[in-house]
Amino acid sequence: MFPYPSGVLHLGHLRVYTISDVVARFKRLNGYKVIHPMGWDAFGLPAENAAVERNINPADWTETNIAKMKEQMEFFLADFDWDREVNTSSPDYYKWTQKIFLMLFEKGLAYRKAAEINWDPVDQTVLANEQVDADGRSWRSGAIVEKRNLEQWFIGITKYAHELNQDLQVLEDWPEKVKTMQKNWIGESQGTEIVIPLSSGFGDVKVFTSRPDTLFSMQFIALALNHPIVEQLAKTDSDLASFIKKAQKIDDPTSKAGYKLKNITASIPIDVNNNVNKTFNIPVYTAPYVLGNYGHGAVMGCPGHDERDFEFWKLHEPATPAAQIVAPKKRLSEKEEYPYTGKTGVLQDKSVLPYGLENIGEYKGKSVKEAMKLITKNLEAHDLGKASTQYRIRDWLISRQRYWGAPIPIVHCQSCGPVAVPDEELPVLLPKVEGYHFGKGNPLEKVDEFVDCKCPKCGGDARRETDTMDTFMDSSWYFFRYLDSKNNTLPIGPEAAKKMPVDLYIGGVEHAILHLLYSRFITKFLSDCGLWNGKPHHKEPFKKLVTQGMVHGKTYTDPKTGRFLKPNEVDLTDANAPLIKKTGVTPNITFEKMSKSKYNGADPTVCIGKYGADVTRAHMLFSAPVSDILNWQEEQISGSDRWLRRVIQLGDAIGELPSDAFKQDVSKSSQSFTNVTLNSEQYPEIKFSSEELALYNEVRKYAKSIADSINVTFSFNTIISDLMKLTNSLTGAVKTSNQYNRDLIIDSYKKLLICMSPVTPSTSEECWERLLQAEGVESPPSIFHEKYPTEEPIESNLVKFNIFINGKHAGTLEALKTLATASDEEIITQVSTIDKVANTITGPIKKLIKKQGMISIVL
Predict the structure, then answer these.
(1) Cα–Cα distance measured from residue 352 to residue 35, given in angstroms and rounded to the nearest whole number
(2) Keywords in UniProt for this one (predicted)?
């Protein structure tokens, strides 16, 4: 995932981009054409705020930060395709973000309606939820935030809700936790929409329930605070108005707060005999736990079968027991039975349930599943209900009353209404503004030359839309633009679009819902518009998703006060026994998310400057599995540092060994040993020892293990451990070089360097060049032009035969497997090369038993 250009590279960046860089380099070694792009998610409030604080334009701030971060990325050897670079705040990019908005607008999927927002009355601006503190105050002005209804732009993602939910099942290479988070966010629910009649001329309300089987146990309904009926009653009920004002500050879905509405009751729409029910005896409440923007802003309350309803009922109607209608098939404990929230069971009356109904007619004995269907059918017969599918997900609000974002390409005309800006007038450029525009209100509203325009439809005076788009609009399609970043006529051309979808997408799990969901939606929409042929891929943007864990820093706190301690307040003379300098007390040590307030941040450029990029990269990968939280401990980096030093020393040692230090009885064959089957009929003259064969096979075993760690398990920490083990094996072989073929040692070292090059590119390239130059190659080609080793280990044709004479072990012979089927004369000839056997066989042989691995001679 591309970063926001803050100007400072942090360890989280280093982790995710090291992982992607390793994969990209590895895939290239395996012959793939790899696109490994980089870009900048440059719009957004952080840049605007930073620019305001410094009294500069956000564009200047952003460009400076991008330059800094590019330099830092090159510092840790990230091999990005910079020629594909995108910047979401560049007109060349947001022209196409605007075009995608207009495509949505044309299809009726971008629309404007009133919505409740957080309003800062002092700064006169809209605030995001995270800009409102726990006391309901604005983060900037400190004013008490108000709720207001303003016209806002929405994107109709709910039209794709079913497809987004259904296609989660085809994402086989996505983490289950991410798919579960999206599934829960989409919140597809099958159930019944029920019409609840109200008394006193209030008409009716609709509720949705996934448990229509519990209808006859309904004891109350609850309406949202902003439900039209509630707002109407609040005009004449001061107590209700006061309750609403207080309850609006409650942001707790488990809240049991509620107010029983006066002079209004409800009825269960049909009775147990399936007749329309005219008895209005169900109280009606308003409660903050009911969401006005979900369903119809009304819910039915069944305390006997829902935990929250039960708690609400106990508080507001403590004298009335919670009615039940569903009984478990198997009797549970009394505590578990009340309320009974199980989704299986049988409908029963008072004869079975202590708080059951007197009579439930034909429904008695029906299973939950049967009752759900039957009740829905009977409601439909009276036009009082119907089967329905509802979704928790709401349409996507993209309006931002901010400057630093892509302008929404709409013109408002009194005669024509909202009118799309014509394609030939895109992009609608963001005007450069002076600092005073960033005072109160929407900055763009104050730029007359931007706002005042002509209607593209009728030519009359009009006003340009001054809201900018949510930055998630920018990031919902950037991966398309990487493939065709220089295209001036389309967001992506048809030929470039053939490269979609993305094979591997890496990013934090915190993006599981918003960014990833919006990207899936826009990708499906663009496929439906014909911008790319997504049908063979279920119109999904990312084949494989990897969510790396966060990087946590070591945090010191005072055990008495809980205050976070700065590093210079802790004596680290003995790293294993730190002490607070002022008190001599041992601090509490934890690993927590890095932040300035906790003084636990670590600058990766400092670490790279001290140890080098390769060591830092290796330590980052070795410290934890990819998906786990990584507790950053720079003091443990010495292990990776020592390993790379051993690799360098190993190359020097190999280069310094004279020819006579190696095994001398090597074949004169011109064939490369990497292409032979040892001791085969094809190359009978090449006979490696068991030690040589073991090294040959070990190199290939670890090469395959590393490849599997990247291609299959994504366990990058084991890559480093495998490379360390292979280094140790090769070091041992060099120490006993007289047992090994020189070509085998050199080729094994080369393969070690190739295997480690995706992780440690600089060290690998340097060692590779030095080795080839020592072999007489004046201008060695880059190691990254080599092929990753994929040869299979070779099974030796040599086996050990235990030799027995008259039942006693006489020695061991290493010979071809075919010895077990050779003639007796051939066997005697070969076993006689063992002195003990030759000295023992002096008389006639009575019997010779030959099996694989064993020769038994009876004299």
Answers:
(1) 67
(2) Aminoacyl-tRNA synthetase, ATP-binding, Ligase, Nucleotide-binding, Protein biosynthesis
Give one word for 118, left, alpha or beta, with left for phi > 0 and alpha for psi -120 to 50.
beta
Rounded alpha-carbon distances, angstroms, from residue 763 to 267, 613, 766, 772:
78, 9, 5, 14
Instruction: Write the CA distances from 118 to 45, 136, 288, 675, 696, integer angstroms.
Output: 16, 10, 17, 71, 68
DSSP strands (E only) in 315-444? 326-327, 346-347, 385-390, 396-397, 399-400, 410-413, 417-420
Whole-angstrom distance, CA of residue 445 vs CA of residue 124: 12
Task: State how far the Cα of 343 lies from the Cα of 302, in Å rounded to an integer.
Answer: 14
Radius of gyration of the chain (CA): 37
Q: Give me 168's structure tokens.
A: 């989660």
Q: Are 727 and 646 in contact (CB under 8 A)?
A: yes
The dihedral over CA atoms of 804, 809, 810, 813, expressed in degrees to the nearest 10, equals 70
Q: Whose CA is closest to 284, among 347, 226, 223?
A: 223
Type of residue numbered 14: L
Please name the residues in contact with 165: beta carbons below 8 A apart, sequence gap of 6 or more: 182, 183, 186, 188, 391
Give tens-digit pLDDT for 234-279. 999 999 999 999 998 787 778 999 999 999 999 999 999 999 999 9
Q: Is 338 helix (H, G, I), strand (E, B) or coil?
A: coil
Q: Is the peptide bond before 427 cis (omega within 30 degrees of 0)?
A: yes
Domains of the chain in sequence order: 11-156+398-499 (3.40.50.620), 195-390 (3.90.740.10), 551-635 (no CATH), 638-785 (1.10.730.10), 798-858 (3.10.20.590)
Query: How many Å separate Cα 80 from the centre of its chain?
Result: 21
> 120 to each of 123, 146, 147, 154, 467, how far by Cα in Å?
6, 7, 9, 21, 16
Best CA proximity match to 314, nearest among 324, 299, 325, 304: 304
Q: Is the dihedral of CA 48, 51, 52, 57 positive or negative?
A: negative
Closest alpha carbon to 687 in 679, 677, 697, 695: 679
Length of the chain as a residue count: 859
Q: What is the largest CA-CA distance in the chain?
A: 125
Q: Compute the distance between CA of residue 706 and CA of residue 798 in angstroms, rounded to an integer.
A: 28
Q: Minimal CA–CA distance to 500: which of 551, 535, 528, 473?
A: 535
Helix axes 91-106, 514-528, angle to 10 degrees: 70
From CA 766, how far away is CA 768, in angstroms rounded? Answer: 5
214: nearest Cα among 314, 316, 343? 343
H helix intervals, 558-663: 604-611, 613-622, 638-656
Q: Which two tokens stand for residue 801?
A: 């035969």
525-581 per-position pLDDT tens digit:
999 999 999 999 999 999 999 999 999 999 999 999 999 999 999 999 998 899 999
Separation of alpha carbons 673 and 573, rounded Å: 54
Cβ of 76: how many Cβ atoms within 10 Å?
A: 22
Q: How far apart are CA 669 and CA 673, in angstroms?
A: 9
Token code pair at residue 727:
């280094």
Sequence-ordered alpha helix ranges (H) in 321-367? 334-337
Q: What is the distance between the alpha carbons of residues 437 and 447, in angstroms, rounded to a whole number? A: 8
Helix locations, 657-801, DSSP H: 690-708, 716-735, 742-756, 761-774
Comparing CA positions, the residue from 136, 115, 22 lying closest to residue 77 is 22
Which of the residue ranges 20-24, 200-204, 625-629, 683-687 would you say has the lowest mean pLDDT?
683-687
Helix (H, G, I), strand (E, B) or coil at 11: helix
- Ramachandran quadrant class, 223 (left: phi over 0; alpha: psi -120 to 50; beta: rest): beta
User: Strand 847-851 relative to strand 854-858: parallel, antiparallel, unpaired?
Assistant: antiparallel
SS3 769: helix
Q: Give phi and psi for 150, each to the nearest 5.
A: -130, 155
How far is Cα 389 from Cα 374, in angstroms, rounded to an integer?
17
Q: Residue 336: what pLDDT? A: 52
